[in-house]
Design brief:
The protein is an alpha/beta fold. Helix content is 40%, strand content 17%. Strands 2-1-3-10-4-11 form a 6-stranded mixed beta sheet, sandwiched between helices.
Length: 334
């Protein structure tokens, strides 16, 4: 089988641990941010997540909080990373999920948010109509659409092109006319884009609407093959002030998100119902297909610090400005 063909994702064992007893415990202590008590005071925290893999993994927690009368944690779902960063700048986000590169930039530019976990380990794919594309060299002379220049999908794809012997500025054309993942997904669904870099769950939604598209490359697999390290794509951040004032509450939220991720992976049919209920995805069929390809594996920052550093180092070597001009210092890792 050609190495570009999609394969089952093989994550490190310490990331893939799925214990049934942990999931059972989830039913006992699901709420990660409930009503505070006198002994353990809790703040009124805001958790900002992106509509996509970031919100997929925590959907059971989101559902639980939506049914509480007086939750002390409120989930805000946004479409684009820049919307989340705006809330950080305004001081309206205590916990934020962002692309790892944007998390590094934000920290290096003075936003004091610490990395506490990684919930998504790669969800990027190359889809297209031309199934004769089976090797990187087959992309020569092609036009590949990706979202906004300088964002993670663009940078990552450029790096993989270079690593596989192609000049992204000469050997093919990178088209940025659809600047957001929503715009690109819509264009692919309508047949306006013949070849595009797209993430889950948008990929599964697009394929349901446009049956001419096929999965051509698993870019997550290609990243690991090229760099020999997995892809800690998404950062789970907490503000330094929230970590200082409400450490037990933050820990409860982390534990609840971790249990939720295990539950989503182990019970995709049930999770699909919640993903539709909370308008993360349009249909349960799409959700069931998207879950195993969304890279949902929750790992605490202290256990995968070296992997994150290796990931950021790749981008720093390519262009230091991608991570904010320098590698984040040790204080970035909680």
């Amino acid at each position: 089988m050609n190495h570009l063909t999609y394969k089952n994702r093989n994550f490190p064992a310490f990331i893939r641990v799925l214990s049934v007893w942990v999931i059972v415990l989830f039913t006992v202590s699901l709420t990660g941010c409930g009503t505070g008590s006198g002994e353990n005071p809790e703040g009124n925290l805001t958790l900002v997540t992106l509509k996509g893999p970031s919100s997929m993994g925590m959907v059971q927690l989101t559902d639980s909080l939506s049914r509480e009368k007086n939750p002390t944690c409120h989930v805000v779902m946004v479409n684009e990373p820049l919307q989340a960063r705006k809330l950080m700048l305004e001081g309206k986000a205590d916990i934020v999920l962002l692309p790892m590169t944007m998390a590094a930039i934000s920290y290096n530019k003075g936003l004091d948010y610490r990395l506490v976990a990684v919930p998504v380990w790669g969800a990027l794919y190359l889809y297209g109509e031309d199934t004769t594309i089976t090797r990187w060299e087959d992309l020569k002379g092609k036009t590949v659409h990706t979202m906004a220049r300088g964002m993670t999908p663009d940078i990552l794809f450029r790096y993989l092109l270079i690593g596989n012997g192609l000049d992204p500025d000469k050997d093919l054309t990178l088209d940025y006319r659809f600047p957001s993942h929503i715009d690109l997904a819509s264009a692919m669904a309508m047949g306006k884009v013949k070849l595009g870099v797209i993430s889950e769950p948008q990929a599964s939604q697009v394929v349901q609407k446009n049956h001419n598209l096929s999965l051509l490359m698993d870019l997550n697999h290609e990243w690991t093959a090229t760099t020999h390290t997995p892809m800690p794509q998404t950062a789970f951040l907490a503000s330094a002030s929230a970590l200082e004032k409400y450490p037990k509450q933050i820990e409860k939220i982390l534990a609840a998100c971790e249990r939720s991720t295990l539950w989503v992976n182990n019970y995709p049919d049930s999770a699909a119902v919640l993903l539709v209920r909370h308008k993360i995805l349009d249909g349960t069929d799409v959700a069931v297909r998207a879950i195993p390809k969304a890279g949902l594996h929750f790992a605490r920052a202290d256990s995968i610090r070296t992997l994150v550093k290796d990931y950021l180092q790749v981008f720093y070597t390519l262009d230091p400005e991608i991570v904010g001009g320098k590698m984040p210092d040790e204080a970035f890792y909680h």
